[in-house]
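step 4 of 6: structure.
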Amino acid sequence: MTLPALDDPARYLMRPARSDDLDALERFAVASAHGITTLPADRAALADRLARSQHAFASADDASGEEIYLFVLEDLALGRVVGTSGITASAGFGGQFYAFRNEVIVHGNAALGLSNRMHTLHLCHDLTGVTLLTSFYIEPAYEHTLAPQLLSRGRLLFIAEFVERFSERVAAESPGLADDTGHCPFWNAVGRQFFDMDYPVAEKLAGGRSKSFIAALMPPAPIYVAVLPKAAQWAIGQLHPVAELPFSILQDEGFDADTWVDVFDAGPIVEARLATLHSVARARHLSSAEGRHAGQEGEAADGRPRLCLISSPHRDRFRAMLGRVGETAAHLPTALARQIDLGPGALARVAPMSLNALTRGGRHD
Amino acid sequence: MTLPALDDPARYLMRPARSDDLDALERFAVASAHGITTLPADRAALADRLARSQHAFASADDASGEEIYLFVLEDLALGRVVGTSGITASAGFGGQFYAFRNEVIVHGNAALGLSNRMHTLHLCHDLTGVTLLTSFYIEPAYEHTLAPQLLSRGRLLFIAEFVERFSERVAAESPGLADDTGHCPFWNAVGRQFFDMDYPVAEKLAGGRSKSFIAALMPPAPIYVAVLPKAAQWAIGQLHPVAELPFSILQDEGFDADTWVDVFDAGPIVEARLATLHSVARARHLSSAEGRHAGQEGEAADGRPRLCLISSPHRDRFRAMLGRVGETAAHLPTALARQIDLGPGALARVAPMSLNALTRGGRHD
Amino acid sequence: MTDTLLINVRQEAAPNALDPQAASWHLQMPAGDGSPELHLGLQGGTGLDRPRHWIHLGTRAHAAPELGLHHRQTMLMLGSNLTGAIELTGLAAPALLAAEAERQQALLDAAVLLLGWMAHQQPANLGLTVFGALPGLRDERGQSPFWAALGQHFAGMTPAQAAQRLGAHWADDLAPLLPRHPVMLSLLPAGAQAVVSQVAPAASRLAQQLVMQGLASGRHVDLVDAGPVHEAPLASLLARRGAAQRHLQALPAEAAEPLSRWWCWAPARGVLLRAEGRLADDGRLQLPSGALATLGAQLDEAFWSAPG
Amino acid sequence: MTDTLLINVRQEAAPNALDPQAASWHLQMPAGDGSPELHLGLQGGTGLDRPRHWIHLGTRAHAAPELGLHHRQTMLMLGSNLTGAIELTGLAAPALLAAEAERQQALLDAAVLLLGWMAHQQPANLGLTVFGALPGLRDERGQSPFWAALGQHFAGMTPAQAAQRLGAHWADDLAPLLPRHPVMLSLLPAGAQAVVSQVAPAASRLAQQLVMQGLASGRHVDLVDAGPVHEAPLASLLARRGAAQRHLQALPAEAAEPLSRWWCWAPARGVLLRAEGRLADDGRLQLPSGALATLGAQLDEAFWSAPG
């Protein structure tokens, strides 16, 4: 049997994580010291998180904001799970989500015509309550395929489908500069003044505590970047190399990376209004073509076929895939509709992939 | 002769202010103690401003950001100027543009499970360099017609036409609560601590100095709103009644009013990205129908006629008017094209008026 | 020995494991002549075990000469500036506030002498601050206009509610809820501004005594009622009096007047004694033999002493 | 009168129209025994005419008991806290820094006596602070590591460039460009942290003399080189010495030893004199007749005097 090529879009399925995905999740957590800052490398903690996610997907209760959602990506050709991604409904739920906001302060002596512009970092909780994209991991073999595009962007269609469960603002943290031993120039210059511990230790503490305990230890005054050591200055807003791929996908979607950085390692935090993100803004609703006349599915009437992200409107049975849909098609091709388990009368969300995504997804294949 | 009704959209023309508009401008400045915060009620100063505006419209030089643009609205039926509006290319040019940013600070004692959320005002210059809509005034008789809609929104099409001269962000100040004697609750509680003078005096000083001298006198720490007298708290973000009409037009356009307030009277400052504003986002480019076959202008082919804002692409000969254009029209009706002096090959900007605008414009007529 | 005054001094176990140097002393002036017993404490290492908070009164001065404007703003800044300092405790005790001026003065005088001795023993401590907080000015119902104008907005509780809910340390527990950024005093209501650094009427005489001892107010106030913190560098207290280690000898029975008052401190006995004596030409301090017995003075033993 | 010391005091026109009370005095100690003339100024109303700035050293203490973390941070806060205070000026003069300890001490002693007299004359001034700034620690090239770590980033100029461009008041002119928010000391490079509140070696003896006079450092530093500001409440200086108004009389020729040193201040003559004398049993101060002549002492006139 010949397997389809890794860049065959039909090969991948994104769906909610199930109990039997625990082994795979543990494998991902262990494999990604830096890539996943929010998946604990501890089986019991992972199992707990998985259970919370399953509850969030299944529960018909009104969302409280406490929910987390974990997805996995299946390689259908091999029948195995090759990546994961997640959503936290409300950042800092029950407390605050802390970040540094980049801000320029101008000082001046008007009488002497002197002034300067100083870059400062303001401890803030502007992002408290926004919806967070988390836990992204894809196996290295799939990095240069379309798989990570589906795994990352599929979350946006899920959020768009269930807006009442999420904030209209979406953000994502990315790891900042640090070496393999956890040496982090920004932490060494700033965080260490408050926490007499190494960065990985503090990071672990924070992971379990939503960072809100930081408020008690960090001073309220802005930090003037100019007084920091050069290495710490350079690290502000810089990305850890392992995060380049997921970061670039979010940039393509229209996320903005200029405003906030992480309080610990100064990694960039991207943010956007959900409605402005490409996959959300360009998505159409299509019902299945099943039961229609064949002619209505014809290529001529449907316009040029384009590679699209396609998601189902079912919460606990959520499915997202990639597939080709005509630019002006009024219905979703039957085969695709079946693959995402789209019921009769249900509407799929169909978003054309951007040129960037395609280039990026295929550039090495 | 019977004049057209005041709500006849064809009756109004918006164009750059000329030297012979000085009398009208002076009349507006005197008539609007609160409505226009940026037009000096002083003939020499007005003449100077008019000259600066004429230079800005006419000059082919690269824009420096120092430019101001003054428009007037003509009632064509009466042949007189009945309103004015303006644009400042870059807020705080050559210095800073100060504002208070609304921000919530959370204090807490995590160990005791206590926390609070405090509303604070942060002195900032986030809006330095944004393009400002200024100087709006319409004669009272025209307030409930479509005239103010044209006079206010026409500026957005001008900015969209000459984006290289403006910021991608647009803001506008509105006067805050004050009585006829200049008694201003926010000023009395806050500003007066720094400036031993009445609000109108300080306002006049600031008008001539772009508010940057404030930096030397106001403390950098945020102001906790809760400690202010109740009257001052209530005034934050409140609009002076005279500004309701221009403010509502900007709200209809999609401006956001939640983030900043004026440092003096705490009046709301609206802000938006240019590209997201309704008149800009919905505008199409149409060339004149002149010289085409009559059939091509036919109503059937052009779809349902809608009231639109129409502007010409000429800087110094800029014109904006209201008129009906078919929803799917490929060309601008010849009569309208002539009215805005659209040359052959030139493209007009045509933006459908929102339902809100129409309702508002016609609600009392 | 009619004019002899005795103060019992007890060193207490330093309660603060973080700084074993932190001294903790208790001074007791016995009752006498119908006056009740008075107490005063000296507690080192303030706030080292759990953070303490005060409001610092800072000044911001700005000028805009082109506008003819000169401004000074008093800024209220919540902080812990007195951390590590030595606190005079017990200043708000009703007995001390109500005591005769002479007895107040003698007790403070004794405390300052003791502080001078501590500084002399441990010159490294010279950089420390000594402070004591006095009750602030409240309204006729005992409420603080200052708390109502500031703390109440942030903590959402009255002092009574907070004390009931959080116990004795409520003010320091609530400090993390109070303004973390400086607050301009001029923004507060006039009634709150008026009480900043003002002392309760019952404590005004003690405040004067503290000033006379060199402990001035005006830099810090209490975060609840804005009562004044009186403070001085320990170095200035050491410099303040003609204190020194002096050898003692018995006052000759035939000694001519004038005699003057002298404090003398016997650490071994925990006794601080004030008696009439005189400084002999050879620098020895001559005290009545009864006083020497109380002090347990040995031949050629030097005692910390100062004019009283 | 071998041990007599004379200091000439001149009151200068108050330069500050905003506060006519602002005293301005100039003390001159004549040359003698191969030692050069020394000068010291007392300048009231600091910063009332144009804003002056210093960096206040504040403490923020925080605890997160659940994490076992206790933290104290020193915060550098630019402000004008000493506005209105009395400044000891001329402390950085090379002649004063190089002078013998005895002459330094005498001049400071005289200044403190004068301050005490001013406070006695104007009790309303008791709340004032007295301060003097000493040069800070610089590197071998005379550069300040503190300025390089802080001010330089904000002002974009070296002190030399700033002085050339802006003149003598350059530091206060540049203050509006310096951090308006508190800066954590711990964020600065170690080399800058190390010099905060450290005095230049040439001034270390004078720093000790100031401490002995009760002017302690540690609250404020200079915004350029972080040199220490020595300060004390005027109230503590007044309390410090046995100063009082005393009537004078001639020291009897047959006066028995021991004599001791006394300062005496004659405002009418602008003379501060230190001579050997003694306090008579009736409270009068007995001084040599030559000293009385110098002071211009009249019968029954009281003079401000204190042990020297």
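step 5 of 6: annotate
 - Residues 43-58 of chain B form the longest helix (16 residues).
 - The radius of gyration of chain B is 22 Å.
step 6 of 6: archive
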